[in-house]
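Researcher: I'm comparing several assemblies side by side, and this is the next one on my list. It has 712 residues spread over two chains. Same procedure as the others: predict the full complex and return the structure.
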Amino acid sequence: MTTTGLRPRPVLALVAANLRRHTRDRVGLFFMVVMPFVSIVFVGMALGGGTAGSSRLPVGVVAEDSGPVSTALLAELRRHPDLEVTTMTSAAELRSGVREGSLAAGLVIPSGSTRLDLVVTETNGSGMAARSAIDVAVSKVAAVEEATRAARTAGATPEQAAAYVRQAQAESGRVAVKDTSTAAGDPRGFAYTAPANLLLFTFINSMAVAAALVESRRLGMLQRALTAPVRHRSVLLGEALSRFLVAGAQAALIMAVSVLAFGVHWGDPLGVAAVVGTFALVSTGAAILVGTLLRTPDQAPAIGPPLGVVLGMLGGCLWPRESSGDVLNAVGHLFPHAWGMDALLKLAVPGTGIGAVLPQLGVLAAMAALLLGASLVLFGRRTRALG
Amino acid sequence: MTALETASVPAATATPALACRGLSKRYGDVVAVEDVGFAIAPGQAYGLLGPNGAGKTTTISMLVGLLRPDSGTVLVGGVDLAADPTRAKAKIGYVPQEIALYPELTGRENLRFFGRLFGLPRRRLAARIDEVLDLIGLTDRADTKLGTYSGGMKRRINIGAALLHRPEVLILDEPTVGVDPQSRKAILDGVERLVEEGMALLYTSHYMEEIERVCERAAIIDHGRIIADGTRRELVSLVGTADKVELVLDGDVETAFAKLRAVEGVVEAARTGASSVRLIAEGGRYLLPALITAVEGSATVTATQVIEPDLEATFLHLTGSTLRD
């Protein structure tokens, strides 16, 4: 047996032929070049539009008096980094704004009452996020009120009470920061839909190009390639590299356009490259697995993209994760999209580096290894030949 | 005169372009191929005949390295396929029965793909593609997508893809299935030219006349075994030299039939209908005047047909089926 290693020419021949085939598939190109941006724009606008820098949620407030609670609450809401507060004159106007979508949520502060009226559309992701932010602000004001009352009850002087209040505000602030990071941490608008659609379409289009692999098998191209003086693993590598490059090109296109057209901030380039590259490997493994298991090319678009959509739903790629609930989010983490979203959203937070997403990267890498390993073994068995 | 009739057995001392010995392949209890062996010299065309399921494709798959034999050896230009598949495969040009080409690519792009698989350098490949396109007569359609080609044109590209690296052995598996007469002629002319230039050829086909035209020697394979191997004359002689003569008579057929049986040279006679008889006669084609004379007075011969033994008859005789079964 010879010890000839992998020769690049046959591998590159397979890659060039496969990429050329994909560029001539007009429907495939439409789904790769146009559809992701249609989705980013429309879903991004539905989630509040804007980019990471201007993604504050519009919230309307009707304060029926100008007492200390109303003033404190209004000030607290205005201080919240995720909220754009507009004071309104009537509850009817506020409800109309929420109903029409110009406001993510509304808050009515009744005169002389400790009961607040929150107006929000529960099915709306922005509304859910605004509600969380309002809850945080209300909690902080309530903490101040509680501290003041406790100080007075204990017989504190006004100076001492003020000191206690400052202390309570500080405590409340710490609580608020913690709360913000869990309840309203995900960005909105294009800052959310760009990474979501990157994962969604990278996976879906990888599934769709699996049809080309089935077609190659059906035509006998792979078998014929193996009658050439080509190592079996060269054919495997050529096919895998073709799919990886398609997945990578899809991801790179979405990143480039989202930066240039929507001003999306992706974060640490090294971290983003690692996450996207690993996710592209996951997609490649899934594509080869599907391309190996299916019998006809028509089955690939019928099975692959729907599967990609379902995994995207579970992973928070179609709507904000916060509106999915804990159970669905937990189920989603059985699949790669949720881990990809976790990593990309974390990287988008300023100051976050690759070190912060190592756990997610590890899970994605394990999934990629599992899928690629299984798919290549199976694919290799189905195309076994001397060589 | 056909190629099979003019064949000469290659010199035993020459290194065969393709030789196999003792090839066997089993799938569980099913024997797909058993103890198959033959040798093809450079410049020789060899036919492989067999009904569907006889083991032709399995044999070819082992010869081109797609299937590992359970036992036996394959030597390509003296190189053991199992020991050095890369070097052995570089000497083979394989044309599968299916059109194994990318329909989204042009004819030229498909050829380029296969040329690169065989490791041809860019410049040499470009020149070679032009030569092959000229050989298969598709230069003017080279840059249109394969999906727009006719079946015959696709077949020609399918063959061209196997010629780019100038193989020592060309293996054609049913290369003319579903093609128009014009493309079939072009394919057969091209194949004959390649053999004349010194390429060894292994050819399988359902069309007996193609085997008779192109191949000097042929093997008949059935149930995974080669049951006959030789030149056309050698194969045909297996069913004897007697011709089949069919006559239609008008008159006293019973008496005429008795007279025909008595004619010298007739070895077998049978009534095949109310007015028709079939005779098996040595040199039957030359016996017709004597047969017509013999029945005079009892009946007149209104129609005759003489069927000489051929590969089809040999095949039928040996396998009990026709090639298209």
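Model: For your comparison table: Residues 35 and 252 of chain B are 55 Å apart (CA to CA).
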